[in-house]
Task: inverse folding
C-alpha cells in the first residue's frame, strides 16, 4: 500500500495536539480565574465598608488553648469608616490565666501596611468563653486585611 500524502499522518497528529493544547489552555485560564477570586477573598480585599460580610479564620488549636469558628466582621461606624469585630469561641487547656492577642495586618489601596486590627481574649484556667472583641482601629474605604498573615500571641499569668 502506497501513501499518497506522506505528511498527512504527522499533520493530523499535530492538529490534534494543538487542539488539545487549546483546550488545556482554556481550562488553565478558568482555573487561574477561580484561584484569583479565592485569593482576593482570603486576603480580604475590599473588606472595609462591607457591612454584613464576614471572613472566617481557620481554627487555632495548641496545647494551651483552642480558638474555633473565628470570624472577622467589619461594622460601619460612620460614612466610609468601619471597625472590625472578632467573634468565635475559645477554650483554655491551661491551669493559668491566658491573654490571647489576635492581630491582623491592615493595608491601604497601594498595599502599604497601615496598622493592625487587634482583638484580645482573656481565658480563665480551664474555661470556655466566647470571643467578642472590637478592634479600636478604624478602617477606611480601600483598606483591607490580609487574613493569611493573622498572628496569635499568648501571655500566661
Result:
Amino acid at each position: 500500500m502506497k501513501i499518497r500524502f506522506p505528511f498527512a499522518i504527522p499533520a493530523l497528529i499535530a492538529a490534534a495536539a494543538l487542539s488539545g493544547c487549546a483546550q488545556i489552555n482554556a481550562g488553565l485560564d478558568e482555573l487561574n480565574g477561580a484561584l484569583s477570586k479565592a485569593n482576593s477573598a482570603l486576603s480580604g480585599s475590599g473588606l472595609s465598608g462591607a457591612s454584613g460580610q464576614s471572613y472566617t479564620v481557620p481554627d487555632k488549636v495548641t496545647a494551651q488553648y483552642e480558638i474555633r469558628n473565628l470570624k472577622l466582621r467589619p461594622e460601619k461606624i460612620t460614612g466610609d469608616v468601619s471597625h472590625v469585630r472578632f467573634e468565635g469561641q475559645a477554650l483554655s487547656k491551661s491551669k493559668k490565666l491566658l491573654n490571647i492577642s489576635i492581630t491582623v495586618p491592615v493595608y491601604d489601596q497601594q498595599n502599604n501596611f497601615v496598622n493592625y486590627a487587634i482583638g484580645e481574649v482573656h481565658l480563665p484556667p480551664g474555661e470556655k468563653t466566647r470571643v467578642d472583641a472590637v478592634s479600636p482601629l478604624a478602617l477606611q474605604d480601600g483598606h483591607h486585611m490580609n487574613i493569611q498573615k493573622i498572628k496569635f500571641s499568648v501571655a500566661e499569668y
In short: The first strand starts at residue 55 and ends at 57.
